[in-house]
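This entry is listed below:
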Amino acid sequence: MTNLITLMIIAIFIIGLVTFYQLQKRHVKFSNRVFIGLFAGVIFGGILQVVLGVGHQSLTTSLEWIQIVGSGYVHLLQMLVMPLVFVSIVGAFVRIKESNKIGKISANVLFVLLSTTAIAATIGSLIVLAFHLDGATFTKGAAETARIAQLAERQTQVENLSIPQQIISFIPTNVFADLAGTRPTSTIGVVIFSAFVGISYLGVKRKAPKEAETFANLMESLYKITMRIVTLVLRLTPYGVFALMTNVLATSDFEAIINLGKFILASYSALIIVLGVHSLYLLSVRVNPITYFKKALPTLSFAFTSRSSAGTLPLNIETQTKALGVDETTANFAGSFGLSIGQNGCAGVYPAMLATIVAPTVGINVHSLSFILMLIVVVTISSFGVAGVGGGATFASLIVLGSMNLPVAIVGLVISVEPLIDMARTLVNVSDSMVAGVVTSHRIHELNRDVLNDQEALIATEE
């Protein structure tokens, strides 16, 4: 009977995949197919949860097969991250006509990423006070106990890491190891190495234009090939979203969601307010937030579903250039920097909330201005180098809590609802990097408002 149920679940899932293929053949818009995949996954996963329940052998087995599509798709995107970061940053130097704009672009992108993170940290702290969240009321079950034990081991990686040492850790010592993603700060290491390659190209261009031209042609070819691979992978998005949402809904612990409902509500409230802050940044450069969110929605939906800022990078850059009118150089810098710097959700709101929740348990007055200011500074600085993949929020929280001498067990106590909150955090992270691209492109007078306001200007996968 168990095998029969498993086969039935897989058969229904395959029918869903075939349906998406038929929609693609009929040229249904890419964004519509993504949303259909999202809602179909919610419905299918929800039904499986209600009918079978978490832990049912048939459900567990069938989800392993379904995740070949979901996790496989995310892995394909993550496969592209390091090559895309490298060719994007170096290509930006190659294509830039005015070399002095590189400094302006970098400064503006970093300003938006870090200033929004500081604001996000403030919002996270204040929302805890508004909701009167008390860490002492969080319960600890078997899963939480196991998680806390894991955190104790992981904390040894960061407990003796001061902020200056953390900054030093960004500098790559072995770029090949960083290209392989062996460190939590590998992404920013690749960004730094790519920037050095780009700066070196500008020097060679002045002294040996012939050799520089050869290198430029090579990088342009690599960029076009990489982006072509990106387009091919992105066409699989509706299938991946369907599989990912099915898994999320089918494996959600509804009892834990109810128990920690207040914390979830507070987290989502803070993250929604941060999206409001993003809207204010857009309004400051005369960009309609409604237009922005409408065009960014497919990318934000995938970020929400996949829980991977890194995996969303290809969609992020495509959306900025094809749909939002951001120039390629700025889009590449904003997308790449946003993977490891100033992630509003994972490195801003979340660590600030946990620190504010747990601080009273060790006698700290969280209403004091000194605590809030210290928290904002620590969170903002610690937001450098947070990996844009699953676990980045945990890493950021351990750094912040450790730097402020606060107990880290709070991170383990919310493990049961972590995936649900992480979905919204990732969406906010990706939105921040795209907003940084739009704002920066405007400030260097490169924002193409015709593309931005053209409702037919969509990402390449719409074609």
In short: The chain is about 75% helix and 0% strand. The chain has one domain: 1-453. Residues 1-453 form a domain with the Proton glutamate symport protein fold (CATH 1.10.3860.10). The two ends are 45 Å apart (CA to CA).
